[in-house]
Queue: 2 jobs
Job 1
Amino acid sequence: MNILLQNLINGLTLGSIYSLVALGLTLVYGILHIPNFAHGALYMVGAFMTYFFMVDLGAHYWIAMLGSGAVVAALGVLCERLVFHPLRHSPPIHDKIAAIGILLFLEALVQMLWGADFRRMSSPFTGVMNIQGLIIPEQRALIIAGAAVLVVGLQLFLRRTMTGSTILAMAQNREGAFLVGIDANRVAMMTFAISGMLAAFAATLYAPINLVYPAMGHLVIMKAFVIIIIGGMGSIPGAVIGGMIIGFTEALGGFYLSNDYKDVIAFALLVVILSIRPQGLFTKGAH
Amino acid sequence: MLQLNNVDVCYGSFKAISDISMSVESGELVVLLGANGAGKSSLFNAISGLIRPSAGQIEFEGQRLSGLKPSGIVSAGVVQCAEGRKLFPQMSVMQNLMMGAYVHRRDKAGNRRHLEEVFELFPILREKSDELASALSGGQQQMVAIGRALMSRPRLLMLDEPSLGLAPLVVRQMFDTIQQINSLGTTVLLAEQNAYAALKIASRAYVMEGGQLVMEGDRETMLNNDEVRKAYIGA
Ligand SMILES: Nc1ncnc2c1ncn2[C@@H]1O[C@H](COP(=O)(O)OP(=O)(O)OP(=O)(O)O)[C@@H](O)[C@H]1O
Ligand SMILES: [Mg+2]
C-alpha cells in the first residue's frame, strides 16, 4: 500500500512537470499552429539560467526562478519576433525547420558557455516530509504544489482576464479575433512569453532532483509532444490531463514493469490511445 | 462616410475584385447584392484590413484605412460581422459579447451600457448568456455575431450575408433587427443574396458581378429594375 502511494506521488511529480512543459507547447500550437521543437531548448535554458543566478551569482532559489522565468520569456518573444514572425506567410515546413534550428543553436550556445558536463543544482528544499510513514521529499512536494499554482493561475488568467482571453479567442477563431480588434502580434508575443516562462519554471522545479546539462530537454520535449498529441493539439485540459497520464504510467510502469523501459511507456501509450481516438482525447471542433 | 476609389483585390494571380468605387453616407443602409463568388466577402475583408487591396484607396471619414491593421480599423469605427459568424465556439455567449468590446476594454461602464442595449435588441441572449456559443441555434448564433459586432461600437457596421442558412421566419426577424439597428443611428453596409428582403429595408444598393460593380441605385429604382428582378428576385 505504502509503496503504491509512494509511486503515485512520484507519478504526480513527473506529471506536474510534464504538464507544465506540455501547456507551453499546446498554447503556442493553438495560436500559431507551429509544433515548437525549440520548446525543449527553452526548458534547458531555463534550468541553466536558474543555475547561473543561483550558483554563479548566489541568488536565492525563488529569485533565481523568477529571473530565469523572465529571461526565458524574453527568449521566447525573441524567437517569435526574429524567426516565426518573418515566416508567417511561408509553408508550415519552414516553421518546423526553423524550430529545429533554434533548438540546435541554443544547445550549442549553452554548451559553449557552460560546457557539456552534468551539473547538480540543489535547492534549499532538501529535507523530507514524513506523513505517517509516507516519505515525500520537500522538493517533490514543491513541484506538485508549484505546478498546481501555475496551472490554476494560468486558467484564471486565460478565462477571467480580457488580455488572457485574447489567447483563447485567437486559438478558437483567428479571423473572429481580428474582427474584434485583437492584434495578432501582441497575442503571439504574449503566448511565447508565457510558454517560455512555464518551461523555465518547470525546469527550475525539476532540476534539483535531476541534473542540468545541455541535452536535458530532449526526452522532456519528446514526451511533451506525446502528451499534446494524446490530449489533442492545442487543448489546454488535454495538456494537463495528458501530462498526468504519462507521469503516472511512467512511475507505475517503471516500478512494476521495468525501470529500463520506463521511457518507452509514453510512446507505447501514444500508439494505444491514437488507435482508439485518432484525434486525441480532448479535441473539440476545428483543431 | 466610407469611400472606396478604384479598389482591386487579388488572391495570388487571381483578381477577385477589380476597380470598385463606391461610397456609403452617414445614416444610410446600403445593400451590396451579388451571387456566389461575386466578391462581396473579399470586398468586406479588404475594408476590414484582413486582406490588403492590391490597388486603390479606402477612406473612412477622411482617414485612410488601407495600411491600418484590422485592430486599427475596428478602433476607427468600421466593424464587420462576417459570413459564417466567426464566433469563439468554446466561449459562452457573454464572453463572446465581451470580446466584441475588446478595443473599448478600459471603458467598463460604457461596455455595460452597450451590453444592455444588445440584450434589449436580442432578449433571448440574456437568457442564454452562460451557454456556449456553439450550443446555440443558427439564428441565435447570428444574434451573438451581430451583438458582438455592436459591442465594438461601430459607426459603420458591415454585415456579410447574415441571413445565410436561417429559416425564413428567422430571416424576417433578422432583417427587422438590422433595420432597427440602422434607425438607432448606426450606418449599415449589408451584403446579401436575398435581394428582395434586403432591398425592402435599404436606402440604396449596389450590384456586384464577377468582381465588378455593374449597377447602383436607390431602393425604388432597384426594386423596379427588370434586370435586378430577373437575376435576384426571380420574378
Ligand atoms: N482566400 C481565397 N483564395 C483564393 N480565392 C479566393 C479566396 N477567397 C475568395 N476567393 C475567390 O474570390 C472570388 C470572390 O469570392 P468572395 O468570397 O469574395 O465572393 P462572395 O460574393 O462573398 O461569395 P458568397 O456569396 O459565396 O459568399 C471567388 O471566385 C472566390 O473563389
Ligand atoms: Mg461571401
Job 2
Amino acid sequence: MSEPILEARNVEYAYPGGIVGLAGVTLAVDAGEKLALLGANGCGKTTLLLSLCGVLKPRSGEVRLSGRLVEYTRAGLRNLRQRVGTLLQDADDQLFAGSIYEDVSFGPLNLGCTEAETRQRVEQALAAMELTDLGDRPPYRLSGGQKKRTALAGVAAMKPAVILLDEPTANLDPHASTDLLALLDQMHGQGTTIVFSTHDVDLAYAWADRIAVLDGGRVSACGSPEEIFGDGQAVRGSGLRTPWVLDVVNALQPSALWPSELRPPRTPAALVKQLAAMRIENVR
Amino acid sequence: MNAREIYDPDNRWRLRHPAEKAVFAGGMLLLSVAAPSGVVLGVVLATVTATTLLLAAVSWRKFAGGMAAPFGFLLVGAIPVLVASGVNPDTQEAEWRLDVAAAGHLVLRGLTATACLVSFATTTSLPEFLGLLRAIRCPEVLTEWMLLTYRFSQSLLLTVASAHLAQQLRLGLGSPRARVRAAGLLGANLLPRSFEKAKRLERGLECRGYDGQLRTLSPRRRVSWPVLGLVVAVQILLAAWAVAAGRGNL
Ligand SMILES: Nc1ncnc2c1ncn2[C@@H]1O[C@H](COP(=O)(O)OP(=O)(O)OP(=O)(O)O)[C@@H](O)[C@H]1O
Ligand SMILES: [Mg+2]
C-alpha cells in the first residue's frame, strides 16, 4: 500500500486549563479518499482538524505529510498549507477582505503566485463555486451558503492536495448542502483528498469512503461505512445513532422483507431503487 | 449582519475605476472651494447630488446619512458669521447685526464640498481607495494603517450589532433600567469579544497562509477614457462659467 498523504501518530493536545482536546489520536489519510471524522459534540473533531493543518501544535505525538514529519517553522508550515487546505466551521472566521474577489486572491498570493497566476486561479475558483457574478460583493453581505462557498473558493484557489472541512454542511439548508457536496465531489473527482468532520451519521454513511469515529479525544473505530455501522457496535455509547437508511433495512430484516444476504444501500435513493426492484420481483 | 459604513455596495459605479470617481469628486471639490458665486455653488451641488443619486444610484438614505453630521457642524459653525457683533467706532456702543447672506454662502459652500466627499465615499469602497493610493505610490505604512483601522472598526461594529441583537432577543432592552444595564454589559464585553473574534479570524487566515501581511488583488478595472473625458469636460465648462461669473461680480 502507498504512503498516507497525511497522518497523525499518537497526537495529544490539551487546551489551556488542562482541558483534554485530543488524548492520543492515530489516523492515516490515504491519498484520494473521502474520510469522515464522526463524533458527538466535544469529542475532538475540530481539535484534530486544527492539529492536522498545523494551527494547533500537538503536546506530544507527530503529524506527517506524505511521510515527512511536519515542522512547526515558518517554512514547514508554509509547505503544509500549500498541500493542506482547511475550511473552518464558521466561514466568518476565514473571510476578511472587502470583496469576494479580493478575499479569494489572498491564499494564492500567500503561496507566492504571480499576479497573472493569481487572477487565473481566482477566476477559476469563483467559476467552480458559481460565484463569478458576486465577485465584487463584500463577504458580509452574503447568505450562509454563499459564505461557505466563498471560503471554499478561497481554499480551492490554493489548489491543495488535501482539504480539511469542519462540519461543512452545518448551518446550511438542504439545497445549499447538496450544492456544496456536489462541488466537493467535483474537487474530489479531480484528485483532491477530502477529510471532513461531522456528527451527521446519515451524511457520513452516504458520502464517505471511510469513517473514523472519535470519542473522548480518541479514534474509537475506523473502517468502511458498512463496517462502522454494520452491527452498530462501533457507534454505541459514543452519542451517535445508526443512519436511517440502515434503520429501515434493519426494521425490514426480521420480517424477512429484506433478504439478509442483500447488501444494504447507502443513500435514500439507492434504498428506494432497491425496494422498487424487490416489489417488481415479488409481483412476478 | 451589516456593519454600518458609508459605502453603498449596491451603487452602480462599483465597477467603475476608482480613478474616475476620484477625478469626478476631486474636481467638483476644487470647484466648490474656488467658486466665487452662490449660483455656481448651487449648480455644482445640484450636479454632484443628482449624479450620485441618479447615475450612480446610491441610496438616498446613505447619501443623506453621510451629509447629516457635517451639515449639523456647518450650521453650528455658521452662527458666528450670522451674528456679527462689534463696537461702533462712531458711537462707541456695542452693536450686532444679522449677516444672512454671508452665513448662507458659507453653509452652501460647506454643503457642496461635503457632497463631493460623500459622493466619493458612497461610491468607492475602502479597498478600492487603498488600491488607488497604492497606485499613486502612497507609503505602505499609511495604507496598511488605514486598512487596519477600518477592519477593526468594522469588527467592533459587528460585535456591537450582534451583542445588541442578543440582548434585544432576551428582552434586555425593555425598561430604561434594563437599557442602562445592557449598555454597561455591552461595553464591558466589547473588547474581550472583539479580541476573541480577532483571534479566531487570525487562526482562520493562518489556515490560508497568513504571515502577517494582508495581500489581496482587486478585480481588474479599466479606466474608461470617454467617461473620464466627459467628467473633465463638464468640470472645465463649470470652471469657465465660474470664472466668467467672478468677473461679472467685480
Ligand atoms: N478554546 C478552547 N479552550 C478550552 N477548551 C476547548 C477549546 N476548544 C475546545 N475545547 C474543548 O476540547 C474538547 C474538544 O473540542 P472540539 O472543539 O475539538 O470538539 P468537536 O468534536 O469539534 O465538537 P463540536 O461537534 O461541538 O464542534 C472539548 O471538551 C472542548 O470543551
Ligand atoms: Mg467542532
